[in-house]
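debug: dumping io for the single-chain case to check the tokenizer round-trip. Nothing else runs in this session.
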Amino acid sequence: MKTKRFYPFFSLALLASISGIAQDKVSADSTKVTALDEILVASIRVNDKAPIAYSNLNKAELAKRNLGQDIPSLMNFMPSVVMTTDAGNGVGYSSIRVRGSDATRVNVTLNGIPYNDGESQGSFWVNMPDFASSVQNIQLQRGVGTSTNGSAAFGASLNLLTDSYSTKSNGEISNAFGSYNTRKHTVKFSTGLMNDHFEIAGRLSNIHSDGYIDRATSDMKSYFLQGTYLGKTTLIKALAFGGDQKTYQAWNGLEDPELLAHNRRFNTSGVYYDQAGNRKFYDDETDNYKQDHFQLHWNERWSSKWSTNAALHYTMGKGYYENYKVQSKLAEYGLDPIVVNGKEVKKSDVVRQKWLDNDFYGFTFSAHYKATNLDVVIGGAANKYEGSHFGNILWVKEPVAYEYKQKYYDDDALKTDVNTYAKATYQFASKWSLYGDLQFRSVHYKANGLETGNVNDTFDFFNPKAGITFQANAQNQWYFSYARANREPNRNDYKDGSPKPEKLNDFELGWRFHSPNASINVNAYYMRYKDQLVLTGALNDVGAAIRENSGDSYRLGLEVEATVRLLEQVYWSPSITVSNNKNVDFHTEWNGELVNLGNTNIAFSPNFIASNALTYIPVKGLNISWLTKFVGEQYMGNVDMQKSKLDAYFVNDLSVNYEFPIKGWFESIGLSVLANNIFDVKYLSNGFYYTYDEVDQGAISTVEGAGYYPQATFNILGGVTLKF
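debug: decoded output
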């Protein structure tokens, strides 16, 4: 299905959903507002009765640090999370790892709709700038979690619920400014419920930053529009949101030790040399992408026990990135060698564009039955992804002849993803409850072309989950669970090798404690993988991480998360993860021979992660928080070589927020200051590691190389929010 045919149909459906509903008298009390909205995500979220490790972030917590940085930055202090950003300051390309698993292994849904890219399986927050301003709350489930829609969760599931509707009309204007010429401008509005039934709400945002890394600029615009119909037992939402971004590439990292020591902000992207040997920078070494999302949700509460949700969705994306490639092989672009002064020329400087034009659409559904001792959810989804990949040559250095915008590859991809699940929680005694969850998922991926070769694979996965919860008393709860997960390779895996699907058995044991002054969650996990696709540490020719099947591997860890009221006005929220992450009997080629390195560390999996938030509330509306993050040393490859080691780092931030009511035009004024890395630490949160073989007189020796992504030193952001 092509965009031009599908888009008008979907637009009409969104409009019809708002205008074609019969008017039922409603009582818009806050309890029902919350209950009907939560139906959107009830089928894939969990609560304390589920034997699953999870953490929540609400709107108030997000708002405290929402000054232009991406969602990964706002999640930085959640348990087992490591955040990194290409530009160094959290604006532009940013991502998270959870329990050492990268973004391609974290399932992300927006109102229950899959967000991970169909082929790469990654989540690109740069395509949804300032989306946090339209988010009601976030739930992060660590491990396999409960059954969800979209790609399999091999490290975590992340679910975002967008803004609820408002019963009263309101507006908001937010402006933030800070280091590296960073600025964010946001305008929000809501009509409130008109005639007790209809609400229209929206947001416009503009974000710019020069980035900490040289030339790592970001220019991003986004919108969010929501129409709501509310009936006695009905909630219908039509949403349209998206973003348009242009970022100067910073994904190459920095390999030169001299530059890393004395010019750590240097950006190697776009570097070339003129005929005189002078270093130049290509102005259009940029990533350009526009993405639009459309969702239509129908929530219905049929009785006190039954509720349902059905949703249609459509996402269209199109964009490209442009590169100046120095001394590229002409044959890779379909160009013939030429003879100059009697010498054959096979390489030349080239400017290329690599395009992606994709459509993603489908539906999700769920039915929820809840009685006194039984909670049952049946649901699923059917989704289709269509991707067109092609590349154009824009320029070739003389004297090579070429045709302007000559297309040098043209790949098509098609992916269907169908899943259905049934899950139940049954309380069989006053203190005991059982949890069961069965999911069947079928994936078909078909691709052809220069990059992937011919792919035509079908995967059928059965993913069972089960657990038990013991509520010892009002304060203490224990749980144990087992979950099975399977997942298919992504596009880059096919491009870089011949991958196999992965398998995971996840065991979780936890204790939860709740009292008026303290909340503590302790969770132990053992995740055993077969054919896990682990990061090698190397990057391919477009800066994407290369993965390989590692045979047997495991992650064993303990997570502790707490919130404690130390004094009347002082709160302490620490989290700690201690883990052991190993490849079992890892084999690799080294110096021309196959060697068994024994048990090695899984790449990008630190054994210790800790965060801390100490908050002081001296007066109503004023919050002062000292935030700390420690990430232990980690290896960027799976061979435990010293050159692949990434040093530990410890970073401290200071956050101050003050919101006070005023009389007149505005309801309140909010002031925010976020001072990042207040002790000016020079640290590296990410990097890459690679090896290659050199042959000298028949002897093969393995050569190592590494690169790094420096993060920003001390920097500051400040903002003002007017609510009316």
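debug: round-trip ok. The chain is about 5% helix and 60% strand.
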